[in-house]
Design brief:
Largest interface: A-B, 27 and 22 residues
Strand content of chain B: 15-25%
Helix content of chain B: 25-40%
Radius of gyration of chain B: 23 Å
Number of helices of chain B: 10
Radius of gyration of chain A: 19 Å
Shape of chain B: globular
Oligomer: heterodimer
Number of strands of chain A: 28
Largest sheet of chain B: 5 strands, parallel
Largest sheet of chain A: 4 strands, antiparallel
Chain lengths: 323, 392
């Protein structure tokens, strides 16, 4: 008996070491074929495909990393995927056409952009109920919640604004006019700034979160790529606020930006129509969903090189990495 | 002298008092015209075409205005068929409206744009695709929201060339627009290296479509009409929809049909749902209870362009709105994956052109590989060096 116990302990220790080396698990939503692809972060090979609701787009991990919330846009609800059984455990109400959402830092509240109805729906995750709705601009899209959970930034694609919403009062407290068709709003880890991408404007606006003013408008130019094809969407900023990555859509590039000087350091060639970005837990990699080439690209943050592309389902949209 | 000064100041201060709630007033000028019925019974022209797009644009602007302290109003003037368009214009002008969206044919549009009171007015043309309005008959006070026929022809021929379907049979109807579109196809073929193997006028009068055996005659006639010609694609110019729908599946050789029927280049298309277009389609369906047409879309873009410029210039003043619209700060997002702006040389809105049939979006031009030194969108239509527009 005692030897058996030691043996099991050893096995666990070995497994643990392997996990530290690389092993995150990557989840990708495939908008067109209504599935989630699971990719093993160690081998970078797809391991499983799970059928989910219609048109899965935004995905976010629960704070305990045990569930994945999925915007099933055409099913008009949120699905909760249990990551131990890989089965849909339950659904949450979302309001019509949920595209993208944010989970508050406590993990209790989901803020959902209803693209088709100019609303942000607030859902209590545990109770599975809609708490309230907040009226915003035309076609709400991006959702970014401040690290302290006090403010939610919602972008509206046709109103061309970032709306700052006080999460306590659920009132819009400020509107920042940005460039055309704003997509994502991403906060810096210190809560001092949020960055807003504008797909048609072709820019990223860096907004001072306290003053609610644009401090820098970052522009992009890729030799040989027409200006119209540069359409910034996904943003990922490192915790140390040194680097930012911006997905440039049909330009098929990810821009690497010095997050202090706002200079573009490098353009990385990835798959076609690059859309969403996600770090792995150590932030040593960035994963990109490439909607037209149906794959994800893996960027090594230390060398700023694309090290692999992994085939997933059709029209990959969202991506998260689970420790 | 003194009283006059006093009145002016009073007017100014009352305007300032309402500064928090500025209203941008946009005119709508159209004429109710008896439309010719299309060949197909399925799609009858809607009575409220165009204006529904303008109304939706106002609703979208209002949502934004709610956050910026601006409001938007559409002042509608619809002239009856036998009425004078200039009367409708003077009504709007008398209300001090200087931004007018028009749904008028070229002669009526030029008629109002040339009256003396119109010099301080800008017209947003949402119905006339005529090349001459962007060329020899252009006016400094008209902007064009729909793609010109030349842009449509270029968009189609770029796609055919990209497919390597270079040999075209051109079939032309009797309308003035048909002849212009055919000329634009010839020009596009020359520009993009396609080849028009033969051009034929459609002269056959098939008689009543609804007679029980009408389709036999049509089938036989189209086969005869296209026999003995070697080509890749039949390109048809029939804007009135008088015969174009008779061509598909009835040609002697199995060849696709494109142009005004078949694969159609257009500003907007029912099957379009890329780049968030689904949202606009659904908003429009909810409001109008029918599908959005090209003219609805053009009117929506006109009102949105004004709204966008009002938001960016933070002003309800038509002068400030127009100066922003003509600056390089202006960009309009209109669900076609590109930022749209007005060409400085002819007032044409530069935009991608959709290529679609009745049920699916096939492609969007400009096609990859057709390069331009400034904007690839300017590979469609008349570019600056070749423009004949010299507004007085």
């Amino acid at each position: 008996m005692p030897t058996g116990l030691i043996g099991r302990g050893l096995a666990i220790a070995v497994l643990g070491a392997a996990r530290i080396a690389a092993a995150d698990t990557i989840y990708v939503s495939n908008e067109k074929d209504n599935t989630i692809t699971i990719v093993d972060g160690a081998t970078l090979a797809p391991v499983k495909t799970i059928a989910v609701g219609q048109r899965p787009r935004g995905i976010v991990l629960s704070k305990d990393a045990k569930s994945l919330y999925i915007c099933a846009s055409d099913s008009d609800h949120i699905e909760v995927l249990d990551l131990s059984s890989d089965e849909i455990a339950r659904t949450l109400p979302s309001g019509p056409d949920p595209e993208f959402f944010a989970l508050d830092p406590a993990g209790k509240t989901l803020y959902i952009a209803n693209e088709d109805s100019n609303l942000v729906t607030v859902v209590d995750v545990d109770r599975g109920e809609v708490v309230t709705e907040i009226a915003v601009g035309v076609e709400p899209e991006g959702m970014g919640i401040s690290p302290d959970g006090k403010y939610l930034v919602n972008t509206s694609e046709t109103t061309n604004m970032a709306h700052v919403i006080d999460t306590a009062t659920r009132q819009v407290v400020a509107n920042v006019l940005v460039d055309s068709r704003p997509r994502r709003a991403e906060w810096t880890a210190d809560g001092a700034q949020f960055w807003v991408s504008a797909e048609i404007g072709g820019t990223v606006s860096v907004v001072d979160a306290a003053k609610r003013e644009i401090v820098k408008r970052i522009t992009f130019a890729v030799p040989g790529v027409p200006a119209e094809a540069i359409q910034p969407v996904g943003i990922a900023i490192t915790r140390d606020h040194k680097l930012a990555f911006v997905a440039l859509g049909p330009a098929n590039r990810v821009a690497v930006i010095d997050a202090q000087s706002y200079e573009v350091i490098k353009y990385l060639l990835v798959g076609q129509r690059v859309w969403s970005l996600a770090f792995n837990p150590e932030q040593s990699r960035v994963y990109t969903t490439n909607g037209v080439s149906n794959d994800i690209s893996v960027i090594d943050v230390a060398s700023l090189k694309v090290i692999k592309s992994v085939p997933v389902g059709q029209l990959p949209w969202g991506v998260v990495s689970r420790p | 002298m003194l009283p006059l000064v006093f009145v002016l100041v009073a007017a100014l201060s009352s305007a300032a008092a309402r500064a928090g709630e500025e209203t941008v007033r946009i005119g709508w000028l159209s004429q109710a015209v008896q439309r010719s019925l299309p060949l197909s019974y399925l799609d009858q022209p809607p009575q409220d075409e165009g204006i529904q797009g303008a109304r939706l644009g106002i609703a979208d602007n209002e949502t934004t205005g709610h956050f910026t302290g601006q409001s938007f109003a559409l002042v509608e003037s619809i002239v009856p068929e036998n009425g004078e368009v200039s009367t409708g214009f003077h009504e709007l002008a008398a209300k001090g409206i200087r931004l007018i969206v028009t749904d008028l044919a070229a002669p009526e549009l030029l008629g109002v744009a040339d009256v003396p009171e119109a010099t301080s007015v800008t017209f947003f043309d949402t119905a006339a695709a005529d090349d001459r309005l962007r060329g020899e008959d252009c006016r400094a006070n008209i902007l064009h929201l729909l793609p010109s026929r030349a842009m449509l022809a270029d968009a189609l021929v770029q796609y055919l060339v990209a497919k390597r379907w270079r040999d075209l049979l051109l079939v032309v109807g009797h309308g003035e627009g048909d002849r212009e579109f055919a000329a634009d196809i010839r020009h596009a073929a020359q520009k993009f290296q396609a080849h028009i193997v033969q051009e034929k006028s459609w002269t056959f009068v098939p008689g009543a479509r609804r007679t029980d055996t009408g389709h036999f005659a049509i089938q036989a006639e189209v086969a005869r009409f296209t026999q003995g010609i070697t080509y890749d694609v039949l390109v048809v110019a029939d804007e009135a929809d008088a015969f174009g729908d008779y061509l598909s599946y009835r040609t002697f050789d199995p060849r696709p049909v494109a142009g005004t029927q078949g694969l159609v280049p257009s500003a907007w298309a029912r099957p379009h749902e890329q780049w968030g277009a689904t949202q606009l389609q659904e908003r429009f369906l909810r409001q109008a209870k029918r599908w959005m047409t090209d003219r609805d879309y053009a009117a929506w873009m006109a009102v949105r362009a004004i709204g966008e410029a009002a938001t960016r210039s933070k002003s309800a003043d038509p002068g400030a709105i127009l100066s922003l619209m003509h600056s390089d700060r202006f960009e309009l997002a209109a669900y076609k994956g590109a930022r749209l702006s007005f060409r400085s040389w002819d007032g044409q809105l530069r935009q991608p052109v959709l290529l679609a049939d009745a049920r699916s979006l096939v492609s969007v031009s400009p096609q990859p590989g057709f390069l331009h030194q400034f904007s690839e969108l300017d590979t469609l239509g008349i570019d600056k060096p070749e423009t004949k527009c010299r507004p007085g």
